[in-house]
Each structure stands twice: as C-alpha cells, then as structure tokens.
Design a protein that fits this description.
With about 220 residues, this protein is mainly alpha-helical. It has one domain. The protein has eight helices and four strands; from the N terminus they run H-H-E-E-H-H-E-E-H-H-H-H. The protein has a two-stranded antiparallel ribbon with strand order 1-2. The chain has a two-stranded antiparallel ribbon with strand order 3-4. Helix 1 runs antiparallel to helix 2. The structure holds zinc ion (ZN). Zinc ion binds next to helix 2 and helix 4. Zinc ion (ZN) binds next to helix 2 and helix 4. It comes from Chryseobacterium culicis.
Length: about 220
C-alpha cells in the first residue's frame, strides 16, 4: 500500500481516540516503512526489478508478522512506561500492526512470518494488478476520510496523492531503470512520500478542528 493510504489509517485510529495527538499516530502507521527505508540504506534489506516490476525480495526485518508484533510491543512498552500514556501506547501499537496487516493484502508473497525462516510467506499480490490496486487503495483512503469526517481539503489530499501514485503503479519496462542503477533512489522516493503525506494529512486533518474550534470560540 502506498504512503497516503497508510497515513489515512491514522485517521481511523484518531477518530476512535479523539483526544490523542494525530502526529504520533501518523508515525505509528509508517514505522515499519521507515524501518524498511533505513534497512535498505544499510543494505540489510533489498529489492529487485524484473519484468518491469519492483519486487521486494528481502524485507523480513521490517515487514514480517513477528517483527511487526515485536515493534508494536516495544512501542507499547516505551510509550506506556516512558511517557505514562497507556491510551497512546495501545493506539500506537495498533498503528504499527496495521501496516503489516495491510501490506499482506497488497504485497506480492514477500511478508514472512518471521525473519528466522523464509516460510511461511504471505501476500495476496494485489500490487500485481495495478488498476485493482488503485481502486482498492483509493476506496480505502476515501473510506478513512469519510469515517474520520474530514474536511474537503483533506479529501483532496487523499485524491491527489492517490492519483500521483498512478505512474508508479502503472510503471513498467524502462520506467523503473533508474531504480536499478541507483538503489538508494526507491527508498528515498518512499521516504519523501512518507514525509510529505504526513505533512499534508496532519495539516488538513487539523485545519477542520481549527475551523470548528475558532467557530465555537467566536460563538
Ligand atoms: Zn510496507
């Protein structure tokens, strides 16, 4: 799943926990992806490109069921004991696990049960059907917005970023060649997407609150 729709998951969690700050929730749903970027930079995980498609060959440290659950438990302990905020700790852990669960639906068969064994491995492979991938991700992003009761600007953020993902979804053949020659490029593009979607979702999810709170202040 692409960055904007992972970020949209934070809206679901926020809606169920309105008093919690949104930014840590945005971090939680992308923690696993940020780890993937870092592990790719370090060469501990890697991807390949063949048949005009990106294949996430090796990502068991960031994206396995075991590591997702372990990262969730670790986050829970740090936030619960370190910051004494059990509600945020639970919500953050849910966000971390959500990432791996959603990726199992969209990824090719590349999400292992644990880093310790290459089997079993899961992935429904929706990513291999770009149009279906686009429709499902788009519908999910809009659903998250609807559930959150976001404002129109936030809906536009979700629509525009989904459309911006289309060239990447539909890319084939030579379009992906730069990623072969410069392996740091794909993790960097993904990191950039994570940051920019954090910014826009945070900004426009809050602008609604600001409008309503300033309106109530005016009253
Ligand atoms: Zn992922």
């Amino acid at each position: 799943m692409y960055a904007i729709n992972h970020a949209a998951t934070a809206l679901l969690i926020k809606k169920n926990n309105p008093k919690l700050p949104l930014f840590p929730l945005l971090v939680s749903v992308q923690l696993v992806e940020v780890l993937w970027v870092f592990f790719n930079y370090m060469g501990w995980e890697y991807f390949s490109i063949s048949d005009g498609k990106v294949h996430l060959d090796f990502l068991p440290y960031s994206h396995s069921i075991f590591s997702g659950v372990a990262a969730a438990i670790l986050s829970f302990c740090i936030i619960s004991w370190g910051y004494k905020n059990k509600k945020l700790a639970i919500a953050f852990a849910v966000g971390v696990v959500s990432h791996v669960m959603i990726d199992v639906i969209f990824h090719e068969k590349d999400v292992q049960l644990s880093p310790f064994s290459s089997t079993p491995v899961w992935g429904l492979g929706i990513i291999d059907r770009p149009i279906l991938n686009f429709i499902l991700e788009f519908a999910y992003g809009v659903f998250c917005w609807w559930y959150f009761k976001g404002n129109r600007a936030l809906l536009w953020v979700i629509i525009i970023f989904n459309i911006l993902d289309l060239p990447m979804m539909l890319a084939h053949d030579d379009a992906l060649t730069p990623f072969i020659h410069y392996p740091f490029l794909l993790p960097s593009v993904i990191l950039f997407q994570i940051f920019i979607t954090w910014y826009f979702v945070y900004r426009y999810a809050h602008s609604k609150k600001n409008i309503s709170s300033s309106a109530s202040e005016a009253i």
